[in-house]
Amino acid sequence: MSQFSGVYPILYAFYDKNGKLDDGLMRLQVEKCIATGAHGIAVLGLVTEVHKLDVNERTHLVKVVGQAINGRVPYAVTVGELSLHGQSEFAKMAKDHGADWVILQPPGVKGYTEAEYVRFLGTVADGLDMPVAIQNNPVNMDVSLSNASLQRLRTEHPNITMLKGEGPALGVAEVIKASEGRYGVFAGHGGKEYISNVLSGCVGLVPAPDCLEHQIKLHQLLVDGRVEEAEALHARLLPLILFMTNSVPNMLCYGKRLFAERIGIKEVHARAPEIQPTEFGLSEVKRMTRGWGPL
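Above: the chain sequence. Below: its structure as tokens.
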């Protein structure tokens, strides 16, 4: 079982007015998340708009965030390069710049046998001297793995100790059951089923940072076995989580603006393609976060 657990906000990508990554705002995110009590920090998921960043920008972001964290909390980096060499080199670069563990994605190219994806991930993991997680997201990713393949990876590659298990809570629970607790599973999808996730055996959550302090509190309530209090808090958060997770573009439009406002960023510069916020959408976010202060 992995030594890592808790709530790891996955950072947004913030840009300056010229469309370049804004290093200062990336460092500000790190400081706000750590001050709020994040158990760790993650980068390069859908929330980080990884699909809009080239490899040089992804590398730069990993370095800037790693330097800002400076070992204060564990640092997780998602690796989604499409080749063995690419994933191996990117993961090693991430470790050199402070990553404590990496999250490997199956290469997003359909058409290969499942055994080939398993071989690919296992080969990358074998070349790394650090803990490794596998991302399995049958909802949002083109390639996902069966429980049998996930068990094979855990059995045959000792440093594969974690799983970013996304999808319906019932499916994640089956993965945990099949692995007999040998995976440290981090849930996703905004935490909309996080109580079920923890009760089935998940050790943590990788959400967007919009409601970070509340999800940290929710996690601690569940760790302490205070399920009824957790249910009440989760019920208050759920409308916002469902609103944000309707789609990735929706989350990047409204979630990023909510988080920016909460950490004192006055203007959000988006990178195309994007959707524009509506007056109604912004008013709904304000309604659902009524009474929330800054982070």
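The beta strands are 6-7, 41-43, 75-79, 101-104, 132-136, 160-165, 184-187, 204-205.
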